[in-house]
């Protein structure tokens, strides 16, 4: 599962930051997940216990913030949510679009005790 790999690399990144900052415990990890990132939020939640197992984040709470998949139609310029529009423009039905927002996954916040 792709999601587990994403989480594993995040745990490693955070571990480095935590060591540099001389912190020991992370209370909460907040991740922003774009609707067009290809990452399934539900899978992230399911994988979290496995990714955190036997790491310094074993007791860390995971919070996800979903970022809407906003795109702009290349034909008519309409801005819309690609997920709810079935990946075609609700105005002209074009499927050519540029992603404005929501194609990333990133660490938003690391809350330490
Ligand atoms: Zn259009």
Automatic annotation (TrEMBL):
GO biological process: protein maturation
Residues involved in Zn(2+) binding: 73, 76, 89, 92
Alphabetized UniProt keyword annotations: Metal-binding, Nickel, Zinc
Keyword Chloroplast tagged: no
GO molecular function: nickel cation binding; zinc ion binding
Binding, Ni(2+): 2
Keyword Zinc: yes
Top-level taxon: Bacteria
InterPro entries per the UniProt record, alphabetical: HypA/HybF (IPR000688)
HAMAP family registered for this protein in UniProt: HypA_HybF (MF_00213)
Family per record: Belongs to the HypA/HybF family.
Primary role: Involved in the maturation of [NiFe] hydrogenases. Required for nickel insertion into the metal center of the hydrogenase.
Protein's recorded name: Hydrogenase maturation factor HypA
Encoding gene, per UniProt annotation: hypA
